[in-house]
Amino acid sequence: MALDTRGVFAIIAGLLMTAALLAARTERRLLGTWIMTLGFAVALLWSVMSIFWAQSNPSALTPKLWITMASMAAASTVYFGYMGLHGEGLGE
Predict the structure, then answer these.
(1) DSSP conformation class of 26
(2) Which residues of 5-37 are buried (b: 16+ CB within 10 A; e: fewer)?
(3) What number is the average pLDDT over the span 11-20?
(4) 68-87 burial string, b = 16+ CB within 10 Å, else e?
(5) Per-residue pLDDT averaged across 6-25, rounded?
(6) pTM of the prediction?
(7) How far apart are CA 11 and CA 87, in angstroms?
(8) C-alpha distances in angstroms, 83 versus 6, 9, 20, 44, 52?
(9) pLDDT at 2
(10) Coil, helix or strand for 89?
(11) Tens digits of per-residue pLDDT, 73-91?
């Protein structure tokens, strides 16, 4: 079974979010915030790709539900980016 682009984006997003939590635990909270922002940005790309995938292929979620996930990822990207711009670290 080959790994498609969506699968790679899902893995990268998960690894980035895990790295963000590890950075926050090692007292690099601001770095953790920025890494979490990147993780949610990649999750947004994954969700947008999944919207189009679900329109032409069998999917566990409908395109409408994928749009909901994409909007959540976009909101989280903005939220963590805003925290990073104002110097607030993850978990402070």
Answers:
(1) T
(2) ebeebbebbeebbebbeebbeeebbbbbbbbbb
(3) 96
(4) ebbeebbebbeebbebbeee
(5) 94
(6) 0.89
(7) 28
(8) 28, 24, 14, 18, 31
(9) 64
(10) coil
(11) 999 999 999 999 999 888 7
